[in-house]
What does this fold into?
Amino acid sequence: MIAALVTLAGVIAQEDTEPLIRWIWITDHLDDILSRGLQHLYLTVASVGIGFAIAFPLAVLASRRRKVAPPITWLLGVLYTIPAIAFIFLLLPVTGFSLTTVAIPLIAYSLLILFRNTLAGLDGVDADVKEAALGMGLSRRQVLWKVEIPLALPVVIAGLRIATVSAIGLVTIAALIGRGGFGQFIQLGLQTFFWTPLLVGVVLSVVMAFLADVLLLGIQRLATPWTRASSTRVLVT
Amino acid sequence: MTAMISLQQIEKRYPGTAAPAVDGLSLDIAEGETVALVGPSGCGKTTTLKMINRLIEPTGGRLLLDGTDVLQRDPVDLRRGIGYVIQQTGLMPHRTVRQNMATVPNLLGWSDEQTAPRIEELTEIFDLDPELLDRYPAELSGGQRQRVGVARALAADPPVMLMDEPFAAVDPIVRARLQDQFLDIQERLNKTIVFVTHDIDEAIKLSDRIAILNVGAKLEQYAPAEEILREPANDFVREFVGAERGLKRLALIKVGDIPLEDGPVVAPTATADQARQAIEDGGFDFVSVIADGELLGWVDRDMLAGKATVADSTPRPFTAYVTARDSLRQALDSIVTSRTGVAVVATEGQRYKGILTLERISQEIIS
Amino acid sequence: MNGFLDGIQWIVNPAHWSGVDGVPSRLWEHVQLSVIALILASLIAIPLGLLVGHTRRGTFLTAQFANLGRAVPSFAVLSVTYLVVIKISPKLAFGSVPTIAALILLAFPVILINTLVGIQQVDADTIEAARGIGMNGRQVLMQLEVPMATPLIMTGLRLAAVLIVATAGLAALVAGGGLGRYVVDGFALQETDRVVAGAILIAILAIATDVLFSFLAKLASPRLRSTDGRKQPPRLISVPTKQV
It folds into this structure.
């Protein structure tokens, strides 16, 4: 969709004197691009990381005490619904123009996804496997760490992927308060009607999201070799 | 002799239900015994089983394992000393077969030097392809998984094993094979085993004693299969055991356990007249043809007509014969389907042993 | 806490309730933008989703397209759309057109994928049975697939609606109207109370939209529960990428 728009813009731009991308601008601003990239990365990793550190124990608790699950889900859902622009500017008077103002909403948004996925992953573990594990003499704690969590990993990491891709996109909105990573270039392009920074901002955001997704998927594949195995069957002996 | 497992008036009451799931059951299981808990759905047999390793906590009564009160011990510790097999095996999908089998040894702190040979031993005992050891459970067939499940339960060599419908989840052919293997293994290892099944025939086949349970785990009869079949304690047991008790009892007796009759025999070199005389003397309509103890077949009067010797009449091979290992039930089946009206007993190598008649077989049950 | 109270005070100030820049006016702008965008997006996305899901052709491409759409930040879509519109026709740039276009582009993948998955997860056996008793393609679609897909379609609409309302808040950045105006204008004028007021109003509107559509969804599909007791797979599809 962006590609379509860009192509359209490119076609139109042919008629303009202004080329679509001024490569000089990019080479001139490499430092800037790098530092914004790091800011973007830092915000993403910190927010999702903290979000996971909060959501994970909550989900483990909720899988043990079912009654706790609905209210937590509801609360996190409400937070999730608050638009980023609203959240950021609500915090502005309190935390000012800082990374914290961006991080808090990002953490809040990642909570819902991570909580739901972790809980779903834990719930999805076969009850028979848990019973057999208990029957063999694993303590409840061992069942959690050695059986439930490893088996829940695919779903948990799927949640991490969604949360990370979301966070990368949301960071761009923080450009409004000057902390938006690649979003700053989008804002610059918008305000000065200059395509180059706009495209740089958009493309780099999307590429970063794509790479993060693939990386996490790769980690999941590495961490769960048994999920590959189910397609192969040995001959009956 | 003190029992290995002793249930003394154990009770399980759930809050909110009027009748207890297990209402004061008392049962003793001796060391090395295989006991089956059988009963209709919901009678409390699985609940009883799970109280032995405290997956379900008893609400009353005492439970002794090798003399010690199970309730005084740490449940986790307790379970590491008891093998546990469930219907769906519950193999950990994220661990290889080898890792699954090593679970309890690892929990007990066994070193690699101790665990590895044990796993090899189990692979041999359970007739598993060593290639499977590094596969994941999803890659195994149903029968293979069941065997791994049982092997895993025995990995740390526990004296006691609990099994909850262990063979119910596979098809009948695989089930029969697994049951046969179970009997072989039990002979080798001599563990104390308690298993739950809803299949009375499986219980008859595999156990030393059967506990027939009614609702509330009420013990209706607790005796060896043979006794239950011969003298069911009441109508409930009689109905539960089902029809064809006589045949089921016959299935428990081996041909080799009872004396055989010699039956009419002739050599292939005998004359037709001698053969006809043998038929006359024997009281049957046929005579077996034996050469140096080897069974060649049979002839009757029609086949002898117009022939000089027995060999000329081309003896017909027996369509079915039974060996000493077969059961009387199989012998009966052989009688019913043969033209001779008797079951011929021979060895695997066709060495003639004798015959069994219908009268002889029914004597075993009537006595 | 202070800033929050200032914002509340700003909202309850009757002076701010009249005129073009008054709360009702801006609210109405915001709602208008959102409703138009939602309707237009649905008009294309729902039939397309139904078609692809029913005929089961082109599902892979459609799914990939929708996934791609989810990964692009809304701020980016908004900005790019704006610049494109300016290039095409500078006159249009100063109206609602860029905003609505961007909103449609954002909502489209969400509605599409939910509709598609909604149709796809209708039990294949049930469909086969329906065909077996003689229902033709259209009857199967209208009488079976659509009713059974309704919960997920409604979920898609709900998610799209919230997304639209939230992104419309950013519309003020591209010279649009709506509640976002308070945030942007207040920010420029350093009037923190106005900024916070705008933020509060947008948040309330978003939450209200979510509640409204949840309610509508319940109305539209009251009795659709699996009767055979099969364990439903977790509905992870209904938690999308948060884009705004």
In short: Chain A has a mean pLDDT of 88. Chain A has one domain: 36-222. Residues 30-64 of chain A form the longest helix (35 residues). The CA atoms of residues 86 and 220 of chain A lie 34 Å apart.
